[in-house]
Amino acid sequence: MKIFHTADWHLGKLVQGVYMTEDQRHVLQQFVKDIEAERPDAVIIAGDLYDRAVPPTEAVQLLDDVLESIVLRLKVPVLAVAGNHDSPTRLDFGHRIMRASGLHIAGVLSSQFEPVVLRDEHGEVHFHLVPYTEPGKVRQTFGEQEVRTHDDAMRVITDAIKRTMDPGARHVLVGHAFVTPHGEPEANTSDSERPLAIGGAEHVSARHFAGFHYTALGHLHQAHHVANETVRYAGSPLKYSISEEHHRKGYLVVEVDGAGLARVEQRPLVPRRDMRTVEGLIADIERHPVNEDYVFVRLLDEALVLSPMERVRSVYPNAMHVERKQAIRSLTGDLQETQGRAQMDGYSLFRAFYQEVTGDEPSAETERLFAETLQEIVLKEGERDEAIEADDDGVRAV
């Protein structure tokens, strides 16, 4: 069975005030052409179809156009789950009606797992759709009071699926989570990924997916495998922050043979405009040939540069950000280079601010209070319905 695995479309995404809709349309048209040429047995979208719970009209129309082409015109089934950026109830609307046409969307988690069953010449392949869900919602749905973290939640969900798995079928899990080899932090992250929780509570161990022939994941924007070749992130189809500058964007082609062995190949998608860093003196940059890429410019001039964005945009009209690379003196008196606060995470910004104001490191209690506050902000920014239902223990699992 041939499967196209993709994720993290983030339709309606704004990057530095620029809507990426036309760039998304450009790569998704390539994706549809590849589907038309190869006719896979299924297409997986592993969460974050939209960039926010209430997407702009243009994003909704784009998703409708793409799904109409894949499902109705090309007759290829689509299997999708809600991500942490999506509204689960909106994606879940009409899913029973759409299932008859080959569009299978799981927006809201249910305790009754009914796999989507597709067939090839070797028999059945069962697709288990697991939408992103807060631990508090999983605790409520399954009545498992010990669930506090995302790892706890995934353990309960996968155990429930495995209890009813058909041993004669091949099994594919589709999910949206921060999966690492042992449930611990790792480096495959980017600035455009909204954290799922604070203080390590978001990490999920790859061991929960033992027993599935392939696990199709979304959330992390860099394509990579976790622990073994069959637990995979497809990555996002476009670069959504400068931290993704060196990512190879595209989708995965997965072929599952009759014995359940999965062979995976990454296919590239060519963007309308690249996203990259340009570094140099302003006088040198102004001599570059005109280029339409989305660039983040780092100026090396020691003297102040007047109207830097206007001057940069005379050469790079789609420049997104300009900053000066400069040396700062740390609290110990050492000179350190900084490349802008935009590349610092929330914890680093807080510690730097606290040290600058007080001249000392924040205490463990201060960091705990900050973590609680930041977690509440993360949930509010996500605009997720589950955040309202989760009790204090679920919200503050740090």
Task: Explain this structure.
- By secondary structure, the protein is an alpha/beta fold.
- The protein is built from twelve helices and 21 strands.
- It has helices spanning 21-38, 57-73, 88-92, 95-99, 135-142, 150-163, 282-285, 308-313, 346-358, 364-382, 385-389, 392-395; strands at residues 2-6, 14-15, 18-19, 42-46, 78-81, 103-106, 116-120, 123-130, 170-176, 178-180, 203-205, 214-218, 224-226, 228-233, 250-256, 262-268, 275-280, 294-299, 321-324, 326-329, 335-338.
- Strands 6-5-4-1-15-16 form a six-stranded mixed sheet. A six-stranded mixed sheet has the order 7-8-9-12-14-13, with no helix packed on it.
- Helix 1 (21-38) runs parallel beside helix 2 (57-73) and helix 5 (135-142) runs parallel beside helix 6 (150-163).
- The radius of gyration is 22 Å and the shape is globular.
Number of strands: 21
Which structural class should the secondary elements be placed in?
Answer: alpha/beta
Which residue ranges are poorly predicted, with pLDDT under 50 across at least 5 consecutive positions? 327-333, 335-339, 383-398
The span between the termini is 41 Å
Q: Number of helical segments?
A: 12
Largest sheet: 6 strands, mixed
